[in-house]
Design goal:
alpha/beta, Rossmann fold, 3 domains, five-stranded antiparallel β-sheet, four-stranded mixed β-sheet
């Protein structure tokens, strides 16, 4: 298997291009051939600077300069470190400081527009006037880049993605596409996110496809821009988290559908967070009149420690949705049902080039199909480990008699060949022997009231009474509503659906903390709750939770 870098630089195509669609400005384009030439110049400059094997932090806005710099690092065997561009006064500044310290980067690259703003990091632009020289050979075991995890359950860790694991994962996308080669890939996910980097940008270069890019900020502001780019450029492959599809469904108005044609789209990958049947159904219903087909939806499962994709529904099959009894999901042994009160789950595809095993989290022993356990993964796409953290590497990448397996920390089960993901092991809430998943509670709260926004559900525990459910829930338009009535409506819906007591803290919009990739930081919200760090519009704790909070606050005095 020829590695990605060798393959791309051996035959960059002049008839394929990368296009960035800046908001309100003309498109910016580079052919694959021109992209390769610019990347070679960057590689020559990095090589002359002695950066082979050393980390280079890449801080870029959405656009083509990042891709040039990233390829230049790979060509020069420097270790690329994609990161979000820090904004003054934002949490991104602290995050970048941590990445600089953790990665050991001594060179920071950015575009000309941000050199002055990033002066504190001694950031600089690369020199594209350097004469391209002999490029070093790429070894499969050499680290290509550090993909920092989102840090939703712990501090961000730098996943060491090798050239070999990257190439294998890109080949998996080719298998998912099937016999019909992808022609044009388009999307808006950040280039510092694994799904945006591998699932969009690098996949387009590997497949020899055109690439159309938008900025996340532009699409969040007006999601029609994403769909319009698909329609206008005849994109056949896109990718987004469940949130992206839900956002487009809610925010694209009837008048914006005029002239839209989504019949070109044959691969719409959904991953990076739980895939909800309601989101898929609503997206199909909303955009079927302009040519979108349900068979174009491709739910998948992946994570940075496996470069990106582990499983994904193949092109043309459409999503598999099955319902299970709530009691069986809570007990960990699923039972399918056709009853109206069944819980629908979306299959994330069949394992292809990776091995997937569901195991008992405590023993590591594989469990039967239909039994919920920890998802474990093996195969050539696995990363080398965590940068500078051998203890975490040993704990997560477990080597045994049957090979090297990744403990994903995700819970799920296999049934009928399909992988179903149910939640995070560390975030699972166990109340009197029942398994409750935070995202299910959060989604039920969102559906309970029109003013419900983002929520964060988690468990708090004491030695005597076990674990208790807490929900920190944003209330949109709080100034015009009654937080007490809002809390009662949400609690009533949760009690009916889950049959357990829930403590609720109603807060204003933009209170829930999330990672750079949009995942809820439930552990952080739990800490704020216990430390009294939330400004509540209304708080309704159960007596047990009130006692836990009082004890916790006392321990911080």
């Amino acid at each position: 298997m020829t590695d990605f870098v060798t393959r791309f630089r051996a035959r960059p195509r002049a008839d394929r291009k990368v296009t960035h669609l800046p908001d309100g400005r003309p498109p910016v384009e580079l052919t694959h051939l021109r992209l390769d030439r610019r990347a070679r110049a960057v590689a020559a400059w990095l090589t002359a600077a002695g950066m082979a094997g050393k980390p280079v932090l890449l801080l870029y806005p959405a656009g083509l300069d990042f891709l040039v710099a990233f390829l230049g690092c790979l060509y020069a065997r420097a270790v690329a470190v994609p990161a979000p561009l820090p904004l003054s006064g934002s949490s991104r500044v602290d995050r970048v400081d941590r990445l600089v310290e953790d990665s050991g980067a001594r060179l920071v690259l950015t575009d000309e527009a941000h050199v002055a703003a990033l002066g504190g990091l001694s950031a600089r632009t690369f020199d594209e006037t350097a004469a391209p020289g002999e490029l070093p050979e790429v070894d499969a075991d050499t680290v290509a880049y550090l993909q920092y995890t989102s840090g939703s359950t712990s501090r961000p860790r730098g996943v060491e993605v090798t050239h070999g694991s990257l190439t294998h994962n890109l080949e998996l996308f080719g298998k998912i596409s099937g016999d019909v080669p992808v022609r044009r890939i388009g999307g808006w996910l950040p280039h510092h996110h694994d799904m945006g980097l591998v699932g969009l940008q690098l996949q387009a270069l590997h497949a020899g496809a055109d690439l159309v890019l938008l900025s996340p900020e532009a699409v969040i502001a007006r999601p029609i821009r994403w769909l319009r780019a698909i329609s206008d450029h005849r994109v056949d492959w896109t990718a987004a988290p469940d949130f992206g599809y839900a956002w487009a469904t809610r925010r694209v108005g009837d008048q914006e559908l005029a002239g839209l044609d989504l019949s070109c789209l044959t691969m719409a990958v959904s991953g990076a967070e739980p895939v909800r049947p309601a989101t898929l159904d609503a997206f199909v219903h909303r955009f079927a009149p302009v040519g979108f087909r349900r068979t174009a939806l491709n739910p998948g499962y992946g994570l940075a420690e496996s470069t990106l994709v582990v499983t994904c529904t193949s092109r043309g099959l459409g999503p598999t949705v099955r319902s299970f009894t709530p009691a069986s999901l809570a007990a960990g042994e699923v039972v399918a049902t056709s009853d109206a009160d069944g819980v629908p789950l979306v299959g994330c595809g069949e394992p292809g080039g990776m091995e997937v095993r569901v195991a008992d989290p405590a023993t590591g022993v594989a469990v039967d199909d239909g039994t919920i356990g920890e998802i474990r993964v093996a195969g050539p796409s696995l990363a080398a480990g965590y940068h500078g953290d051998p203890a975490a590497t040993r704990a997560t990448f477990v080597t045994g008699p049957d090979g090297r397996w990744l403990r994903t920390g995700d819970l799920g089960f296999v049934l009928g060949g399909q992988l179903y993901v149910t939640g995070r092991l560390k975030e699972l809430i166990i109340v009197r022997g029942r398994n409750l998943y935070p995202h299910d509670i959060e989604f039920a709260a969102l559906e309970a009231h029109p003013d419900a926004g983002r929520g964060a559900a988690f468990g708090v525990r004491d030695a005597d009474s076990g674990e208790h459910v807490v929900l920190v829930q944003e209330m949109r338009r709080a100034a015009r509503g009654d937080p007490g009535e809002f809390a009662e409506a949400v609690l009533d819906a949760l009690t009916r659906q889950f049959g357990v007591a829930v403590s609720i803290v109603v807060v204003r919009s933009n209170t829930i903390r999330h990672t750079t990739s949009g995942k809820v930081r439930r552990g952080h919200m739990r800490d704020l709750f216990l430390e009294g760090g939330l400004s509540a519009l209304r708080s309704v704790p159960t007596p047990a939770v009130a006692a836990i909070v009082a004890t916790s606050k006392g321990s911080h005095v």
